[in-house]
Amino acid sequence: MSSPQAFDVQAIRKDFPILDQQIRGRSLVYLDSAASAQKPRQVLDAIRQFDASDYSNVHRGVHTLSQRATEAYEAARESARRFLNAAKTTEIIFTRGTTEAINLVVSSYGQRFIKEGDEIVITHMEHHSNIVPWQMFCERTGAVLKVIPINDAGELVMEEARRLIGPKTRMVALVHVSNALGTINPVEEIIELAHAQDAAVMLDGAQAVPHLSVDVQALGCDFYAFSGHKLFGPTGIGVLYGRESLLNAMPPYQGGGEMISSVTFDKTVFNELPAKFEAGTPNITGAVGLGAAIEYFEGLDLEGAAAHEHELLVYASEALAAIPAVRLVGTASNKASVVSFVIDNIHPHDVGTILDQEGIAVRVGHHCAQPVMDRYQIPATVRASLAIYNTKDEIDRLVAGIQTVLDLFG
Questions:
Q1: Are β-strands 119-123 and 144-148 bridged in parallel, bridged antiparallel, or unpaired?
Q2: What is the pLDDT of residue 262?
Q3: Domain of 184?
Q4: Which sign, positive or negative, has the C-alpha torsion 189, 195, 199, 203?
Q5: Residue environment code for 334-351, b if the CB has 16+ CB neighbours within 10 A, otherwise e
Q6: Which regions in the chain score pLDDT beneath 50?
Q7: Are 56 and 138 in the same domain?
Q8: Is 221 a catalytic residue?
Q9: Among 219, 239, 132, CA closest to 176
Q10: What is the CATH number of the domain that holds 244?
Q11: Does one domain contain both 50 and 162?
Q12: Which of 48, 160, 173, 188 is CA-nearest to residue 121?
């Protein structure tokens, strides 16, 4: 791991070649990192070098390329372990992303530990990937889904959380940071409430890991999931952290190669962790890219990056709130770098289309969080999501772009 470098946003921007381009004749302003963050040159180079020089299938190969590939793949697992401060690499399962990690827990933990009449508690601000799998599981098993509501600011109603997490609760699954609102949830308190009822806790950390320091041992959560492409890495790769005792007790999620120790037509003996949950040829290049992204991120001045992002968040929130026609959606007191908003009488898709004409990339829609939109009685929002490479000048461009929208709509 490289030593941290003093945070310099202009120097950081030079690491991201995609930012140095024109969109419709204007310099690109990329404000969509909550959907997918861009990749620094260091990650692009690591992927290219691996595929050009070291690529082969991993594990069991005796030839040199297979050994190199296996070493790179397992080095990425160690990077993920260190990044989350998991106790062992056996607690790090590579997945296709947060969605698959959640589905793995729903299917495997649910099969082993949750039965008819048991309760699963989620929140009103969940991404669809932490709603739909649990709904499907409840339909199959007769388990009951409970939902912690949110207030007008987009914060959990903790009085309801304390009421809902009870003796029948077997799992509490919630987002660490909301992708639609930017709310940072009080996960430490939720974990304490759940564990007092002998319930497990799974955190969706997709939006948290690019902005917060995450220590799964300090948090005490039982499962933690994140995606590589939110953390300046490639798509198609993610991580599930699971407490070793639970992973050992859970049945395999998928069957196939690598997850077995021996196979006969009479019986299959499953492999040890983490291979037990990694059936088939994995996304080897993706794991290498994720490892490089973690190395890059850890090499930054993380305190400086956090301060920079918070300053941008405050600057953007105040600038947008000052526009009379704009209404912010999600004003929690503890937020990460997401600013969602609507403009009076103008559909978010129209806003996004016009902003694109100005070279500004934002996300519009329900952000795979339709219950959040229903809570605020709106069909969609415009979401500007910030990252380490954004600047106040880009926020000014966004504000100017919104003024163009308002001018066009009279």
A1: parallel
A2: 84
A3: 45-298
A4: positive
A5: ebbbbbbbbbeebebeeb
A6: 1-3
A7: yes
A8: no
A9: 219
A10: 3.40.640.10
A11: yes
A12: 173
Tokens 């940071």 map to which residue? 177
Overall domain count for the chain: 2
Question: Cα 194 to chain center, whole Å?
Answer: 22
Q: Looking at the domain assignment, is residue 3 inside a domain?
A: no
Q: Do 214 and 283 have their domain in common?
A: yes
Q: Cα separation of 355 and 180, whole Å?
A: 19
Amino acid at 276: K
Residues 286/237, Cβ–Cβ less than 8 Å: yes
Annotated active-site residue in 136, 302, 319, 368? 368
- In the chain the first and final C-alpha atoms are separated, in Å, by 54
DSSP result, 331-394 = --SSB-SEEEEEETTB-HHHHHHHHHHTTEE-EEE-TT-HHHHHHTT-S-EEEEE--TT--HHH
pLDDT tens-digit readout, 24-36: 999 999 999 999 9
Contact (CB, 8 A) for 94 and 273:
no
Q: Are residues 291 and 200 in the same domain?
A: yes
Q: Does residue 185 sit in the same domain as residue 289? A: yes
Tokens of 340: 């969602």
Residue 169 β-bridge partners:
119
Asked if residue 409 is part of any domain, the answer here is: no
Listed residues 298, 320, 346: the one ending a domain: 298
Each residue of 251-304: pLDDT tens digit? 999 888 888 788 889 888 887 899 999 999 999 999 999 999 999 999 999 999
Residue 359 pLDDT: 98
pTM of the model: 0.96
